[in-house]
């Protein structure tokens, strides 16, 4: 008995000594580590790494960029079932402990003593917050001790809901998803508010091992983990037995969901991404910027659809180029599933969907779609498919379906009015870009048929010749240098000799005929090449180039020869539409811009656009202001006399009323103006048109310049796309005419000579002039100007008109 007492006393002393030693050691660690602990207050202002997001001006998501997908949510936004699922899985005593769970730590200590290494770690949610925000992921004793100290400190300074909110927004949950909102979107394509109990438990099972319990990669393991969590929730009284039973029956429905744009504009999103990274650096991918663009989602959708329809129509009217591929019919019970998997190698492009020809009869075909469904293609949907021979020739009309394709072929189809139609992915490309003339805001832009087939942005990168689409700027230079809309110039053959050329230059009109003396108004709306050349020759190349640079066209790209009159310059569709915007707004140079504002993670606007605004009245006020100290608005500089611009606008309206773009009359509006453009051999086709509220340019051509084919002028290849887009863009909007500036006088003239009409002249027509250029006398023998055969002059046209 005495020995037992002695042993007990010895063990008591040993326990006390061990406890004291433990306290001393723990205190030593605390005193050593405590001064180096980070300030917990940092957690209140922590900036979670959040991706860059791009939005339209009407708040539609265009794109998300960044390796980490995260959408922070506040605690009161998190459904109770989701909170409980995480507590059941990770820390059921979270709301009871003070940051450290002693039992869990004891269990971890026993593991360390028995195995020599830390296994479960005994971490609470608070300890995980300390680790995730402040510490490394290494499994060492000093890191664990720091974690404990930090957890205690966090619990003293933050409320429980704040800690849980930080945890649920920070944790990695697989598939690039950080935080519960990003995970709900990544696995289920929905918000946390829409998750079922089973889905909430599935996500709560991920922190333990995101790869091991991933419901997409490892659905069986994930299901076991989910059901265990549901069982724990019932044990803890968080759900009823009936709720658990119902949730356990739910199948694994997770599938990968990328960041889903609400509006489709990949060319625009990429432009914005590049600009933001250039402005803010690569940290923009993680700093949580929300970028608001000038793009209108409705107009963007219409621009993209109009371009796709127009390019497909061009492709189809030149003939069918054959199936996109062939898949031999496999054997066995899984044959159709095999074909469906192979079909996924063929991308869907807009409305065009790949299909496998299951069977062919004389006038129809049975198809297997990539969705696994079968469909029928009737004869009326494929009868158009005459074989493509070359750009100017098609084969004969097909007589039966087998003349077009055979069983096993992969074809593309589109749907219209619940019927399928054979189609094909076009090789031809195009671009549409639309601006607000008042300040240059980009309203819609698409740089090609499909971004995922070709990322080259033709709206901003393709330097192409605009042809006659450029003539209005040459004519505006003439109007600025003494010409009038009634100035007559001879539309007649001319030959230019140049020592630098191997042969003489004999420019032609597209119609190959000549009309003799013509007024400038008529010459422009009929797009007469010879008149344009003689006009440039008279105004002078140097004078014209100087004016064009004032409009905003890069001078180094302007050829200093008479081919300039025919649009031999090379500019992008964005350059061209910028020039037309200056006409549409009454004569003010505006610069296209895409980004309206940038908002940081905390909701602060860190960038706000300040575009130059076209405002004739504002500009007048600025010129008349006597005070040099008076602050001025950001007013766009004028490019020309507003009266010259107004007269040119009226001529461009005639292009639609009676010229090369009469198809646009189908829109039933009187406020539209524009100009077609086609280059030699129909290599490039253009149409640029506008009213006072919107200016839009369309370009069509091949990336490697080659002819679009006979008769593929701007009026046929580009104008229908413009009409298609503008029909929707202008729907339910009032007409927006350019306001007439003071100093315009309208008088009757002789349509043949351009001179003032004689009193009572039957065929007299009205023409508008700047007040100082109104013809004052009637002349019986009005001269015309044939421009000579070579050279250039800077002599004002007034000498020619009134001499």
From TrEMBL:
Keywords: Antibiotic resistance, Carboxypeptidase, Cell inner membrane, Cell membrane, Cell shape, Cell wall biogenesis/degradation, Glycosyltransferase, Hydrolase, Membrane, Multifunctional enzyme, Peptidoglycan synthesis, Protease, Signal-anchor, Transferase, Transmembrane, Transmembrane helix. Residues 320-428 form the Penicillin-binding protein OB-like domain. It is found in: Cell inner membrane. Residues 430-722 form the Penicillin-binding protein transpeptidase domain. It catalyses: [GlcNAc-(1->4)-Mur2Ac(oyl-L-Ala-gamma-D-Glu-L-Lys-D-Ala-D-Ala)](n)-di-trans,octa-cis-undecaprenyl diphosphate + beta-D-GlcNAc-(1->4)-Mur2Ac(oyl-L-Ala-gamma-D-Glu-L-Lys-D-Ala-D-Ala)-di-trans,octa-cis-undecaprenyl diphosphate = [GlcNAc-(1->4)-Mur2Ac(oyl-L-Ala-gamma-D-Glu-L-Lys-D-Ala-D-Ala)](n+1)-di-trans,octa-cis-undecaprenyl diphosphate + di-trans,octa-cis-undecaprenyl diphosphate + H(+); Preferential cleavage: (Ac)2-L-Lys-D-Ala-|-D-Ala. Also transpeptidation of peptidyl-alanyl moieties that are N-acyl substituents of D-alanine. Residues 59-234 form the Glycosyl transferase family domain. Pfam families: PCB_OB, Transgly, Transpeptidase. Residues 617-638, 779-803 are annotated as: Disordered. The chain crosses the membrane at residues 12-33. Its EC number is 2.4.99.28, 3.4.16.4. It is a single-pass type II membrane protein. Its main location: membrane. The keyword Cell wall biogenesis/degradation applies. InterPro entries: Beta-lactam/transpept-like (IPR012338), Glyco_trans_51 (IPR001264), Glycosyltr_51/Transpeptidase (IPR050396), Lysozyme-like_dom_sf (IPR023346), PBP_transglycosylase (IPR036950), PCB_OB (IPR031376), PCN-bd_Tpept (IPR001460). Pathway: Cell wall biogenesis; peptidoglycan biosynthesis; Glycan biosynthesis. GO terms for cellular component: outer membrane-bounded periplasmic space; plasma membrane. One of its GO terms (molecular function) is peptidoglycan glycosyltransferase activity. SUPFAM superfamilies: beta-lactamase/transpeptidase-like, Lysozyme-like. GO terms for biological process: cell wall organization; peptidoglycan biosynthetic process; proteolysis; regulation of cell shape; response to antibiotic. Residues 620-629 have a biased composition (Basic and acidic residues). Cell wall formation. Synthesis of cross-linked peptidoglycan from the lipid intermediates. The enzyme has a penicillin-insensitive transglycosylase N-terminal domain (formation of linear glycan strands) and a penicillin-sensitive transpeptidase C-terminal domain (cross-linking of the peptide subunits). In the C-terminal section; belongs to the transpeptidase family. In the N-terminal section; belongs to the glycosyltransferase 51 family. This is Penicillin-binding protein 1A.
